[in-house]
Amino acid sequence: MDIKWLKRYRLFCIGGSIILCVQVVLAFVFFSIQEYSVVEELSPNSLNRLRNVADYGIGDDEESSYNNVPSGSNHRNKLPPDKDNSASSNEYFNKALQHRHNNYKTDNLRVLGVDELGFVPPCDISGRECVSALHRAKTETCKQIIANISCLIKTNPPYPKRLPHQCPTNDVKQNKIIGCFRDGKEIKLLPGYKTSLIYTNSQENCMDLCLQSGFAYAGVEYGTECFCGNETPEWGLKLPDTFCDMQCPGNLSQMCGGHYTINVFKTGVSKFIAKTASEPSPNFKHNNIPPVRIVFLLTLNGRAVRQVYRLIKALFHRDHYFFIHVDARHDYMFRELSKIELTLSNVRLSRRRHSTIWGGASLLTTLMDAMSDLVQSSWDWDFVINLSESDFPIKSNDALVKFLTVNREHNFVKSHGREVQQFIQKQGLDKTFVECEARMWRVGEKELPKGIIWDGGSDWLALSRPFVDYLVAGDTLISGLSQFFKYTLLPAESFFHTVLRNSPFCETYIDNNLHVTNWKRWLGCKCQYRHVVDWCGCSPNVFRYDDWNRIKNTEKKQVYFARKFEPIINLSIIDTLEVWLYGEYPADFKNRMSYWQNLYHYDDVYPAPDESLLIVGNSLARVATKYLTTSHTTCQIRTLDKLLQVFTYHHKDKFKGFLIQYEVSFSNNSNKLLFESWCWPKLQGIIILNKDPINRLLNFIVSSDFDKKEQMSRNFIRLIGPYTEPVLIHQWAAGEHSFTVTFLWLNPYDELINVTSTNIEESALITFGKPTLPMPLSQGIWTVLLVYENVTMAYTQFLVTPLHTIRDTSIPASQMR
Fold first, then answer.
1. Burial (CB count within 10 angstroms: exposed 0-12, middle 13-18, buried 19+), residue 297
2. 432-478 confidence digits (pLDDT tens)
3. Do the beta carbons of residue 801 and residue 612 sit within 8 Å?
4. Does Glycoprotein count among this protein's keywords (predicted)?
5. Pair 706, 729: CB distance under 8 Å
6. Which of 23, 93, 363, 581 is the most buried (most CB within 10 A)?
């Protein structure tokens, strides 16, 4: 009977046997690999937890019946009945530690030699980040800076290992032992912060860590664990010191608590509570209190001169001052603002100019240079507030002056609002960065100076005159931090906060930078600064008219500025804000909703002009002069002398074309005349079959410089050269279902170069695609076809302009097809 059933179901039996064998083999391979891979991927926290499992047989999620501290003279040898103190478990833990240590040693074996570098570095260059930076840097000067700083930080850091904490309400020199205490499993005695220092835990190291985070108490437990908190331990939980009997791995002569017993220490600082700003009374009058005088420290980039004029006008008062730093790479902005410096005595431009890249160490240098100049100037001021071209006031000058007058000599900075150690990691304070070639290169790790509280947050500040005087005068704390932040990302976001927390001015700290910022992190945190820094950063979004209620709702709050504003994106919100603050414009006020922004000026050296813009601008100027000459017999232009300027033109938040200004001559002896022509990009998307679902298509263009944060291209004229990376931008209305479309990229010779597909969701969206195209691009008119279900439904075209040079190098004719 059994044989008959086996014959009938033999295929099933064979299949089941094969599956069983495969499962056995896979299980064997899995557990063989797991023995090593689990240990290999252990982090410090998980290694500490491994030791808990090895020594006590439980993990974080398991229950333990052991809740009481053992008593008696032999308590050191006692373990809970469910714990195993076997040699094998300790041996397994030691192997894990050794494996991790070996991995750490062999992580960066590759050493760069003289042949690769072209010079002799001060030390062996082997760190992964440093090697990567050296391979990517373009100039030998930058490579030498990277190598020198990397070696310096690794061998002999140019900043102190310990800095003084000078807040008068604290005394870090008086840190002392409180004693041994019983600790709970779920409810910890010091719940503020916990970490595991497997190799380095000691009483001093734990106290330094807790002091770094601003905690009043530190505690060591179970040998490797460090706890921090602000609440005084309950004296009812105090135990004899013999109950804290585990050695510290970082100092074997010390004890670091025990099993649910903790050695507690005072760090010397008290729990920090930021001051609350006073609010001026409704009937506030200055009377015998002189109103504060403010320096607006403007750190400017770009070409939005018209918006900077508008900002200065909104803030202007005869009692206030404007100290302006223009990025060293922006000649146009500096040249235009120099004109108002000649006419207004309370406006001054800094001649110590730096390239203030995002996250760069140069921004801190810029701010400190400016403050030094302000202290040495003859201006009589009480506060300095730093702003950019993207800021704008949201309350009147009178309201700001009253507020700062009643808070005279306080300092306004915005803290990060999270746990300090998390902030240090996310901010990259423990990483070494080097600035050169207008980029921040990550080159390795570094240790933070000990002995002080670390803080940080926003780099928008309002600082009092006494504190600025202290910053400029300097002391051991300031000089040490200045050296440290030379090699740190986003230094201005931490330097002033940290100085303030550790200086004699610690009690003037108010956790408010007087700003409201338009954060939309799902859009603004897309690593958009990777082209200038080896780190992922976030940037706030531009306020648009739809955000007006958010600004209006700050009326009762202690905020006086908002950011970001960009009139080239949305002028309506700025106009609405000005009317709200200062009243309606006259009815006959012209060009209220128009905006012009310069793209090119013939006097500019930096930044270098876009050659595609020059070619298009000169070509259009020639076309315009030819038209004038042929269509008007009295207008005989002899020569087109020079392309002077190019502007984009916007009206009611819509791009309306661009203006080119050029100079012409009529005869050898005639005066030169300035002409201006208004131009418009002609190539647009065309829908061939406007049926569902393609009737959802709202926009279909090819451009470049797509801003993912603002969901738009900043290349308004849509200039594309042979070495530009084109971006296909398409906007869709909401629909009932998703579908897939295909894009075909055809060069000027109708050759198919690239095919891409994308899925269009039901919701309204703006999306983009960057195809992989061979460089240089063929010059001429390209076409992109939109195909749905094998039918061409729409197309768009774009022009690739010719180039004769790139980066001052002639392009071979063979590449200029």
1. buried
2. 999 999 999 999 999 999 999 999 999 999 999 999 999 999 999 99
3. yes
4. yes
5. yes
6. 363
